[in-house]
Amino acid sequence: MLTTATITAVVSAALHEDAPWGDITSELLIPSDAMASAELVAREHGVFSGGAVFLAAFALTDPSITVELLVADAAPFAAGDVLARVSGSARGILQAERVALNLVQRMSGIATLTAEYVAETAGTRARIADTRKTTPGLRALERQAVRDGGGHNHRFSLSDAVMAKDNHLAVLTANGISVTDALLGLRARLPLTTHIEVEVDRIDQIDAVLAAGVDTIMLDNFTPEQLRAGVAHIAGRTVVEASGGVNLGTVRAIAETGVDVISVGALTHSVRALDLGLDVTVATDVVTD
User: Hey, what CATH topology would domain 118-269 get?
Assistant: First the structure.
């Protein structure tokens, strides 16, 4: 789950990047006692994600700023909906708005795209999952957005699970090492609960991997016909994941082959930020010295 500590670390770094020595425009142009309010408005429909991150951007800039979230994470919204209201120091709101918007727009874009993939696979057994093709430093936020869109998370990092890919297997083969023996030896050295997944790109590679008793086999860049044959060959002996060539136009056909998981790098590596705007109005009851 996305923790407060992670949100604070990520948002603090983003705020420092954006205003390392303060916001000289607002500090020199806007009176220190000027107050303002703002609304986060949707310019298009989508699925919301990043409420706590949006709130943190303002709270870490100026704790006196108040943020009222009007929709919950994972909730759908329509164009024109007001998603949040912000009020307080005009300087603080103006300084935090870009970071707040950048993060909530990206997270909501990921949640919205994930929801579209999930909808395309409705009625099948396939679960939509993300990959490690995330923005460096933003992985925890982007994974939360995938969950808000109804998707599932793959391993978080290289430390979390074994995932032997084609390059790993190529190195073993080049050194005359049996794939089955190498995987069995790996299992013997791992904690009992550590998941083992192996990627194959040909059906004739499956038996050597199955013989090692792995937990998941990834069928990479298989056609739907090849996926169907792979699923039939594995016959429930392990979880079957499909990867490669997945987009909104192909995901339904992939899901209908009977795979258990479809991993989609596009959820995070090329997603479009959702069009959300922060409309600021100046309060009329500004108190002056």
Answer: TIM Barrel (3.20.20)
User: Would residue 165 show up in a list of annotated catalytic residues for this protein?
Assistant: yes
pLDDT, position 1: 82
pTM of structure: 0.94
Pick the catalytic residue: 18, 85, 116, 165? Answer: 165
62 CB burial (10 A radius; 0-12, 13-18, 19+): middle
Is 133 an active-site residue? yes
148 catalytic? Reply is no
Say whether 73 is catalytic.
Answer: no
Quickly name the fold that domain 4-114+272-282 has: Aldehyde Oxidoreductase; domain 3 (3.90.1170)
DSSP bridge pairs for 41:
82, 277
User: Tens of pLDDT along 129-163?
Assistant: 999 999 999 999 999 999 999 999 999 999 999 99
| Residue 88 in tokens | 């307080």
Options 220, 228, 252, 256, the catalytic residue: 220
